Amino acid sequence: MTPQTRVKERAEEQATSMSTDQQSAIRMLANELHRLNHAVMKAVEAGVSVELVRSARHHGGNGNWGDLMIPVVVAQPR
Fold first, then answer.
1. Is residue 2 in a domain?
2. What's the CA angle centered on 42, arms 31 and 78, to 5 degrees?
3. What percent of the chain lies above the pLDDT cut of 90?
4. How far, rounded to the nearest angstrom, does the alpha carbon of residue 63 sit from its chain's CA centroid?
5. Which residues span the domain enclosing 34?
6. What residues pair up with 63 in beta bridges, in sequence order?
7. Domains in the chain: how many in total?
8. Would residue 1 count as lying in a domain?
9. Helical H runs in the chain?
């Protein structure tokens, strides 16, 4: 059974007070996070452990910021 992450739904709920451009960016982010979560689940099912770690923080110059992530992957012995 595949767990439901509800990333897209939560992002849409949070976007109600945002501008159209912000809402579009959040929808794109939610879609990409859904794809990332699916890829992580597939990697785990293929026999590796995956941890996402913040590699840097991007600052937008006006007080906004976002974490940039890298995967740490550990293959299980066969």
1. no
2. 160
3. 64
4. 21
5. 7-75
6. none
7. 1
8. no
9. 7-14, 20-45
